[in-house]
Design a protein that fits this description.
This is Sporadically distributed protein, TIGR04141 family. By secondary structure, this protein is an alpha+beta fold. Helix content is 28%, strand content 35%. The protein has 13 helices and 34 strands. A hairpin with a 2-residue loop joins strand 22 and strand 23. Helix 8 crosses helix 13 and helix 9 crosses helix 10. The radius of gyration is 29 Å and the shape is elongated. The protein starts with a strand and ends with a strand. The relative contact order is 0.09.
Amino acid sequence: MAAINLYKILANKHNDITDYLRTNYIVIGERQVQVDIGIDSETGEIIQANYQLSLYFGAGTDGKPLSWNWALNLFGHQELSTDGTPKAVIVIQAGENKFAVTFGHSYFRIDQFSDKEWAFEFARRLKYKNVRTTAVTNPNSQRNRTINTYLEYENLDLSSGEALTKLKANIELPVDFELFSDVIEIGNSIRVNSDNLTLEKIVKIVLFIEDIRMNEEVKVKIPFFKIVKEQEEVQVLKGQMLQDFEINNMSIDFSEYQIYATRVVFRDNHEYEYRHKYKQAKCDKVTLETVENFMREHEFSINNDLLDIRVAVFEDGRSIYSTTIEKLIYYTHEQAHALLADGSWYIYNEDYLQYLKDSVAEISAEYEAQYDYSQTAHNEFLEQIFQGERENGEYRDLDDSVIRKKISQKHYKERYYNNWLVDLGFSNFDRELEALGKHRLEVMDLYKENSMFAVKFGKSSGKLCYAVDQSIEAIKAYHRGDIEIEGEIENVYLWLVLERGDLPLIDGQPDINDLNMLILKNKLDQWKKEVRLLGYRPKIKINYARN
């Protein structure tokens, strides 16, 4: 059987892909195919449509026979062999739609012109017999991308906080179906296997997929990302991302692999070279540290240079392709519910957001007004410290304003708050660090009655997520026996002191979903699962910073 790797090209990319192919490939064949598409209900005559197919080829050097010589034969060319990296693309013009079948390494480039939603909209309308492999994105998780393999697994089950990026499965097909086998791969493209291929059969495969996508009802909920198609919106998102990088010191994640077509390309398999404005620097891995070092060494700026840095990818000492750093960045835009991945901007689809909402709603949340932070009480405490210590040797010869500032820095909000809670029955572990190998871990902020608490003030995901990461690391270390705590831990709390208005209550519980903090919710979803998996109860305490 031969493999068909099929893309649908975005409408606003039709001219771009044509220009790219004419510049980098040679047209070695064109055919017009006529296909029966239906019957006229009035006359009973068969309705036919014409489709234009063009073969673009990039040659290598003679040597090894090509596995896709059949495609060349369909356009009247003899079989070729090569030692290099040949590539080819069949472009199918179907009315106002354009499709592409890729061969060799051509998918690396054709991928950028493709409609990333098309394959998954088709996948949602299929019935599955056996799910073999899934690749999922876990935004804002410690494992932001995960690959799963299965044996004899019928259900396409995805958890909250996961978005599907690749799927390989056996599907149910009509009786006597002959277009392709029941094994299908879904990613940025659709990959099927078929025998006795003709150009007419390739067109019929396209028409079958389009008919299912447009006319069948959705059978399976699939959380995935919907691409942002409007360039004006993309530019706004990109500008806001760069502003965020400036404020938050370029807090960038780089994903462990990329999806091209239906293939998973791991970054650890390669070596890299940064290139920008005639400057180069080689590295073993694309990381925030290596990017920052390259930019710092050559005085490049975030706004003017970051996204234009190119990354050459080497395999066995040979450059196989290059891409921009933008296509390797993994970034979540909270307010827009958007994600930058593989160089494209996506919006979280409805299935993803609903799964996440349901998951967060499962976490027990509580509010007790007596634990609200009081700025007035804090100020009174600082004044008492000032009056009592201003004559101490530490502060002698300093202005009152300097003394007040030093005292305020020493007794900052969270430290004051944790100490204050000691009088209300909590044990304070704030700033008590445990040594784990070369690292030191803050076990928790507070402890009370078999419960550990990680406390954080804030009004944004950037601030509050620190408590989530601290909590996960601490409970893992406790579970492994790396740290000792008097008493047995049963409950793991995140104690979030919000610097905002009160959340609405649902059955007496603060509604965490009312927070417009997508990154935090993704983190909470993963935190909940990890804590439960270790055998503890995840809970959230909500309080507010009052005047």
